[in-house]
Specification:
Layout: E1 2-3, E2 17-22, E3 33-38, H1 41-51, E4 56-60, E5 82-93, E6 99-114, E7 123-128, E8 137-138, H2 148-161, H3 168-171, H4 176-186, H5 191-198, H6 203-218
Parallel strand pairs: 2-4
Antiparallel strand pairs: 1-8, 2-7, 3-6, 4-5, 5-6, 6-7
């Protein structure tokens, strides 16, 4: 494995605490690029604060929980334990008071504990990057390769099912990591499916799971009809 580029933080540069942006269905993976349109006041405060510090934000997904929905705070729902920290690598302001940013994935983390609400109204956590520190390294070319033929067939079926134009020709020249990352982040998968992809231990595992999910999405189960 090799270390990433000169602008990428090292393990010692990763923050102990960071703001988090809970957003259902948003998947950020290491070295992936996630564009975000920020308009809610507390998240405008979060971006402004991050730009003045280390530009790092943790992307997390709210955890579905049907048992306590009546008592759940809809503005601050419980979140999955694992997220991915991203660095703001592009930023612009709009005339109507929004921020348009791009987060570039750096490293996954596990939430140790949630911190008191920040003065800007956004949430922050104490995170542990150690279990995922290999995210900072580029995948070795000696690792088990992704099954591209099976992935291509699954993606073509997925696009046909959803009446979308295939993007395989655009993606096929990329390496395995960028191929899997772009498809996983871009396809319309459920929040639970995206969380499962985030937590995959290896690139091969993520590619295999992604292929299976696309195959399932391309052949949805027919609704069952009641019989007398």
């Amino acid at each position: 494995m090799s270390i990433c580029g000169p602008f990428d933080p090292s393990f010692s540069d990763l923050p102990d605490t960071m703001p988090v942006f809970p957003l259902s269905g948003a998947l950020l993976l290491p070295r992936g690029h996630l564009p975000l349109n920020i308009f809610e006041p507390r998240y405008l405060n979060m971006i402004a604060d991050a730009l003045g510090q280390d530009r790092m934000i943790g992307m997390v997904q709210p955890r579905p929980d049907g048992r306590n929905t009546y008592h759940m705070d809809p503005d601050n729902p419980p979140v999955f334990q694992t997220g991915c920290a991203g660095r703001i690598t592009a930023f612009s302001e709009t005339d109507d008071g929004r921020f348009l940013i791009t987060l570039t994935g750096v490293c996954r983390f596990n939430i140790i504990e949630e911190l008191p609400m920040q003065s800007g109204g956004y949430r922050a956590v104490l995170g542990d990057f150690a279990p995922w520190k290999d995210d900072l390294l580029l995948p070795s070319p000696d690792l088990q390769p992704v099954n591209r033929d099976r992935l291509r067939q699954a993606l073509e079926g997925y696009f046909a099912q959803h009446s979308l134009r295939s993007c395989w020709d655009t993606l096929s020249d990329t390496d395995d990591e960028m191929l899997v990352t772009a498809i996983a982040m871009g396809c319309r998968l459920s929040p639970l499916e995206k969380q499962a992809l985030l937590e995959c231990a290896s690139l091969y595992d993520r590619g295999d799971m992604l292929t299976t999910l696309l195959e399932m999405a391309a052949h949805p189960r027919a609704p069952q009809t009641a019989t007398n």
